[in-house]
Design brief:
single chain, 163 residues, Nucleoside Triphosphate Pyrophosphohydrolase, 3-stranded antiparallel beta sheet, 4 helices, 27% helix, globular
Length: 163
């Protein structure tokens, strides 16, 4: 069973938890997300398998106990999309995703290397390049098509980028 650092709203480590316990009880723990862009500025949106096909970050995953956001997010980018290039940290922020789902998000970005090619794998079947404006419009019109975490990271991204 993979363990995660249990944190408070100031991101101080206060204990240890696991995914099942944290998601069942609302315990705050760390997650990393990557916004991967293509050379045209479109964001690769992941069709999230375990949520039944909701749209999600390009990359997203839990940060393991003892990992930094940068280490865990880099690991997730490699596992999910085969991305090995440097990631730029945008923000670390609190994300309330419902009564029993709370995360501290580390949000990162990068532009896909021109030689990178998506290969479907056991974690990710499909990604779709989309304009940020299209994503935001869809989030406003049909929020049920997106994971709550993606909605929250897009809000943070928009705040930071003033888009």
């Amino acid at each position: 069973m993979e363990l995660f650092d249990l944190v408070d709203v100031d991101d101080n480590i206060i204990g240890v938890t696991n995914k099942k316990e944290a998601h069942a009880t609302g315990k705050l723990h760390r997650v990393g997300a990557v916004y991967l862009f293509d050379s045209k500025g479109r964001l690769y949106v992941q069709v999230h398998k375990s949520s039944g096909g909701l749209y999600d970050h390009s990359v997203g995953g839990h940060i393991s106990q003892g990992e930094t956001y940068a280490e865990g997010t880099k690991r997730e980018a490699r596992e999910e999309l085969g991305i090995t290039q440097p990631l730029e940290e945008l923000s670390i922020f609190y994300s309330d995703e419902g009564p029993k789902l709370q995360h501290m998000f580390g949000l990162y970005t990068c532009v896909a290397d021109p030689t990178w090619e998506f290969i479907p794998n056991e974690e990710v079947d499909e990604i779709i390049p989309m304009e940020i404006s299209v994503i935001r419009d869809l989030m406003n019109e049909e929020p049920q098509r997106f994971t709550r975490g993606f909605i929250n990271t897009m809000s943070e991204y928009t705040r930071l980028k003033d888009e």
